[in-house]
């Protein structure tokens, strides 16, 4: 309520019309004097925001966000025990990765029938609901990580698998065959291991020490399902 | 002023026990804002209180306007400004109250702490429970202990989903009107939740001492056997191997569940009903999971009709005598067989 006590003074100086000065003398209903904690917190905060980011150019804003996303990508590709992903979490990166993956995994419906290949909505739902389930699980196991931090980490760690998808599509351009399959299998397995290790590096610290395995197993399953979707993709 | 005085004092005196805090605050002096904090303490669901409060605020505002209208000498702008201020104040209060309502409702319903005790396990406990789910204990005179946790069963259901996806893909299953992912998740979760509820209902009828949580945990751990069998047989396609595993591993996990239920039920008829149903459903589910997503469909057609009809029939042929026999595998296996049978029937 400290804010409340300060703001009446602020409010009255902001509208310095002498006509209002006599307001406190008017008692409309005798019990409620019309002075005191009239707080309009929105206005004060909006004025602050006005000065910081609303006046900058759109390009500047986008570049700042993209740089943050790119920095986190680097953290995922070279996983060290840092909490950069946890401290300033954002969901732009996971969204970009998920949309890219879902677009690449979409089969063009040539026959006009759904032949069981993952469609855009399926991949999207699997990624986001899988991440939500893992987050809930790790919270229920006693982890002290927040909901969105966990979503952020799991989403960013899909990056190696997206790279695997790109490589698989390129490899598939050369035609299909057993050698082709072996290459793709190798790439996907390596990227899957990378994803699991990267997400463990970030998430494991938030769990009680004796339950790390319980929290890591669903992460393993989650990336396994995504890897399966990537490996079995045929254009 | 008498007319305005009475409602105002009515506001003050009409503040009964539930508005006790309100009253004190007014007399405390410094606050124009009607303090809603105390309201939360005294009333449970504040929807009716909110309506009441809003009503009182409106009354007060009407009083305020009425009183301000009387002070018409000189301070014209002052009055208008005051009305604007009061409406802003009211709007702000309404927003605050609404926000508080929403956050309270959210913390009540989205509180996952209700489930927290069911996830309180150690890895060693999960491992030992997984192994115990394959070992039937023959102690029927005393209720056997069932661990009431949800982590193990949930992870086993997800593992079964993953194994099923792998099996569907290696058998080139074609699902029309659906997706592989959706089918796998629907099948596994549907079995776990649906059969648990059904057996719990039967247990209620047969007067068995088992709770819903225990039933969920029991059936969940019983899926461990299914996971093992399917993981092996989706990769090694031998029918005899599958039947052996079905009887051995599936049988062991079913026996374990049956033993637990028998120890918790009194009376031979009830025991028979409950355990028979569970055993039948559990074993048939494993059978279904194997055969529904199995690629050796041609072998089944051959064994049923004899070798005179090749599985992929493209040449138009008059085969009326075979049609009834062709219908039989359609009911047994999946869409792949349907496609073949349709192709046969259309020629």
Automatic annotation (TrEMBL), chain A:
Family statement: Belongs to the YIP1 family.
InterPro entries with a match to the protein in the record: Yip1/4-like, Yip1_dom
Keywords, sorted A to Z: Golgi apparatus, Membrane, Transmembrane, Transmembrane helix
Protein known as: Protein YIPF
Main localization category: Golgi
Start and end residues of each Yip1 domain: 76-229
UniProt organism field: Microtus ochrogaster (Prairie vole)
Entry's localization field: Golgi apparatus membrane; Membrane
Topological type in the membrane: Multi-pass membrane protein
Keyword Transport tagged: no
Domain of life: Eukaryota
Regions crossing the membrane: 89-108, 120-141, 153-175, 181-203, 215-234
Keyword Transmembrane: yes
Automatic annotation (TrEMBL), chain B:
Organism this protein belongs to: Microtus ochrogaster
Region (Disordered) location: 1-30
Lineage of the organism: Eukaryota, Metazoa, Chordata, Craniata, Vertebrata
GO cellular component annotations of the record: Golgi apparatus; plasma membrane; transport vesicle
Transmembrane segments: 150-168, 180-203, 215-234, 240-260, 272-293
InterPro entries referenced in this protein's UniProt entry, alphabetically: tRNA_Mod/Golgi_Maint (IPR051521)
Gene expressing this chain: Yipf3
Subcellular location: Cell membrane; Cytoplasm; Golgi apparatus, cis-Golgi network membrane
Name used for this protein in its record: Protein YIPF3
Family to which the UniProt record says this protein belongs: Belongs to the YIP1 family.
